[in-house]
Design a protein that fits this description.
By secondary structure, the protein is of the alpha+beta class. Helices cover 40% and strands 24% of the residues. The longest helix has 26 residues. The protein is globular.
């Protein structure tokens, strides 16, 4: 009962108007004379943060779940001073955009047309930590925790999500994960569709993806929205092409189709992002664009969880404390996400997705998906 009461106070503080959401200020907000009870909750109290994560996934499934749910993988940095916080070292942080003394957390977010929230987390431990068992013991890192790549942490979270009540049809991730062929093969092996970013140097059946996209006919580019943003719909020009099947993996009767996809800025046409995808046979370009656009939702989750729920405002140094604070902050953020969805859905209308036409051009190893409007214009102006 004591741990439950402290947990309630902590989550209320994370949701409340607290300046900096650490144990000291949350304790003051809760009316506690000292922060010792909340510090005990994070460091020594007996409760299972992974069990709470599982409850969070059940909650998200019930409140946000739809059959076409998208799981989004990404990592974020937590800038820290000193060398004693579990996993901290000088390493590149995409959050800061540079190398910083920080911890890196790998996260999974769940997104549907109803809303999105963080649903899983893992602390990345560099080899400088896992190779130093005394340092690990001081930070109370379990003996069985050895070095695991960010990609393997992401795989573990995907498997947990598949075992949870979350209905998942798609996975998306940035190029740090998408360029790994083993990661993409893993997704196909567990029967998940995906749209993942890749670098321009990514090889696709030999040639680089940027070289292939450069060969796209003008009619292949179509303007589609990647979803709503802070300033309205985020429109880009998109080109997509079906890729040849691979008999070794697909067999005689493939059940999925692989694609390559490019997103081009309207105002700066030289800015192009590249993707590889694997989707059901009836998937359209609009479906791929929708999933690609979902990747930004985890960035929105990071921003709102940090700004509103203190995701990055912890002062714990030990391994267990990190997982407990992060999980409680994720729970608070999921609650806010669900409340926002319930308000929004009082008058929401669901968008429809345009379809695409298929081009069967000779001498091409790919099958470009043409913009119907561009095809019609070309046909009527000849």
């Amino acid at each position: 009962m004591e741990a439950r009461r402290r947990m309630r106070d902590y989550v209320r503080g994370l949701l409340g108007p607290v300046g900096r959401k650490n144990s000291w200020q949350i304790a003051e907000y809760a009316g506690n004379a000292t922060p010792h009870g909340l510090q005990h909750l994070l460091s020594h109290s007996r409760w299972d943060a992974d069990g709470l994560r599982d409850d969070l996934q059940t909650y998200a499934a019930a409140q946000l779940g739809t059959p076409d749910g998208v799981l989004i993988l990404d990592d974020t940095g937590f800038v820290k001073k000193g060398a004693t916080s579990a996993g901290v070292q000088r390493q590149y942080s995409g959050t800061a955009g540079r190398t910083e003394n920080c911890q890196i957390g790998v996260f999974a977010a769940y997104a549907t047309i109803r809303g999105h929230a963080l649903v899983d987390r893992e602390l990345y431990l560099p080899k400088s930590w896992t190779d130093d068992r005394e340092r690990c013991q001081a930070a109370r890192i379990p003996d069985e925790r050895t070095f695991v790549t960010k990609g393997d942490l992401a795989r573990a979270m995907i498997l947990r999500a598949l075992a949870s009540p979350l209905p998942i049809a798609w996975v998306t991730a940035d190029s740090a994960y998408g360029q790994d062929s083993h990661f993409r093969r893993f997704l196909e092996d567990v029967k998940l569709s995906y749209v993942v970013a890749v670098p321009k140097s990514q090889q696709v059946h030999g040639p680089r993806i940027d070289h292939l996209i450069a060969q796209a006919p003008p009619e292949a580019w179509q303007r589609l929205s990647a979803g709503p943003g802070a300033k309205g719909q985020r429109f880009y020009d998109w080109a997509a092409a079906r890729l040849p099947t691979v008999a070794e993996f697909d067999g005689a009767e493939p059940t999925r189709q692989r694609w390559m996809l490019a997103r081009r800025s309207i105002s700066r046409p030289d800015e192009i992002a590249y993707y590889l995808a694997c989707a059901p046979l009836d998937a359209t370009v609009a479906d791929l664009v929708r999933v690609a656009g979902c990747r930004w939702k985890i960035e929105e989750c990071f921003q709102s969880a940090k700004n509103e729920c203190g995701l990055d405002q912890y002062e714990v140094r030990r391994y267990v404390g990190w997982y407990r604070h992060i999980t409680l902050a994720m729970l608070a953020h999921a609650f806010l996400a669900v409340m926002a969805v319930q308000e929004r859905e009082k008058g929401v209308t669901r968008p429809t997705h345009p379809t695409s036409w298929t081009s069967h051009q000779p001498r091409s190893v790919v099958c470009w998906q043409l913009n119907p409007a561009a095809v019609l214009h070309a046909a009527t102006t000849r």
